[in-house]
Specification:
With 326 residues, the protein is an alpha/beta fold. The protein folds into two domains: 164 residues, Bordetella uptake gene, domain 1 (D-Maltodextrin-Binding Protein, domain 2); 99 residues, D-Maltodextrin-Binding Protein, domain 2 (3-Layer(aba) Sandwich). It is built from eleven helices and ten strands. Strands 1, 2, 3, 4, 5, 6, 7, 8, 9 and 10 form a ten-stranded mixed beta sheet that branches. Helix 2 links the parallel strand 1 and strand 2. Helix 2 crosses helix 9 and helix 6 packs across helix 11. It is globular and about 65 Å long.
């Protein structure tokens, strides 16, 4: 009887051990099927390209396809809402942006997601400055000269943006708030029509995303005045920062991975670790710099703190500028 009792105990222990191993194996298997990365903007932009670069490398490292799905509209709100409501199993994530996950909550009155409560930050993927550019007819060549020129022409200077509530809009509003200048806002439906009018002189200046604005400046169609980051752009160190003349001014456009809020923490950690590794690879860093942004790759804790700080910052700018959308 003792032998049978011992055998039963051994069998029970083996069963428990098997269950633990099976559980561990189940966790280790993620992902077991394709993962969707929602991009809340149209294809072809920096956010889309960064998502596809990262998705390709995640597929190679984690053994399952990471498929990019574009869901543009409402400054990223449509795509963000779809992921906020998705099943929290790690198979639907989003490449969020400064607009979708920091600006929109303070701009849209009827936003149907909470950028803090409805998401689990995974990693800050990339961030880069905007570029302050002016039409060649503008006499100013530096930030102080531009401020003086605008003040000498109150209400006569107009700036273009890629839309109400976008980072290009609020970058100019922050500039207005910090300098006291009086400029007229002319919003456009995207960078292309805005650039067309800026190049033709219909508007005098803009704080556009680096890739588009720098290309036009290099072509001689616009004049680059300053970058909006704290540090000069590595590939164009001769362009000064706005901060050098206006201490405290800093605007960066950024992209980062988020999962639905209730996604298991072990999956978030796995995706964060994989993303951090990829974003520190030299070829990825070089490719993103060519696009006008810097690879980052942060921990989910660091990214959580970053998103909270960005949300507070843009809430203040939007409130003081009186920017609201339905």
């Amino acid at each position: 009887m003792k032998i049978y009792s011992q055998l039963r105990k051994l069998a029970a222990a083996a069963a428990v051990g098997g269950m633990l191993l099976a559980g561990a194996g189940a966790q280790a298997k993620y992902p077991e099927r394709p993962v969707t990365i929602v991009v809340p903007l149209s294809a072809g932009g920096v956010t889309d390209i960064a998502a596809r670069l990262l998705g390709k490398r995640l597929s190679e490292d984690l053994g399952q396809p990471f498929i990019v799905e574009n869901k543009p509209g409402a400054g990223g709100a449509i795509g963000a809402e779809s992921v906020a409501n998705a099943k929290a199993d790690g198979y639907t994530i989003i490449m969020g942006t400064v607009s979708s996950h920091a600006i929109n909550p303070s701009v849209y009155k009827s936003l149907r997601y909470d950028n803090i409560k409805d998401f689990k930050p995974i990693s800050l993927v990339a961030q880069g400055p905007n570029l302050l550019v002016v039409h060649p007819s503008v006499p100013a060549k530096t930030v102080p000269e531009l401020i003086k020129w605008i003040k000498d022409n109150p209400g006569k200077v107009s700036y273009g943006s890629t839309g109400v509530g976008t980072s290009t809009h609020l970058a100019a509003e922050l500039f207005k708030q910090m300098t006291g200048v009086d400029m007229v806002h002319v919003p456009y439906k995207g960078s292309a029509p805005m650039m067309t009018d800026l190049i033709s002189g219909q508007v005098q200046l803009a704080f556009d995303n680096m890739p588009t604005a720098l290309a036009q400046a290099k072509a001689g169609k616009l004049r680059a005045i300053a970058v909006t980051s704290k540090q000069p752009w590595p590939l164009e160190p001769g362009i000064p920062t706005v901060d050098a003349s206006l201490p405290g001014y800093e605007i960066v456009s950024w992209q980062g991975l988020f999962a639905p809020a209730k996604t298991p923490p072990e999956i978030v950690e796995q995706l964060s670790a994989a993303t951090q590794k990829i974003m520190h690879e030299p070829d990825i860093k070089q490719r993103l710099q060519e696009l006008g942004t810097n690879a980052v790759g942060s921990s989910n804790k660091e990214f959580t703190e970053f998103v909270a700080a960005e949300t507070r910052k843009w809430a203040k700018v939007a409130r003081e500028a009186g920017v609201t959308l339905e």
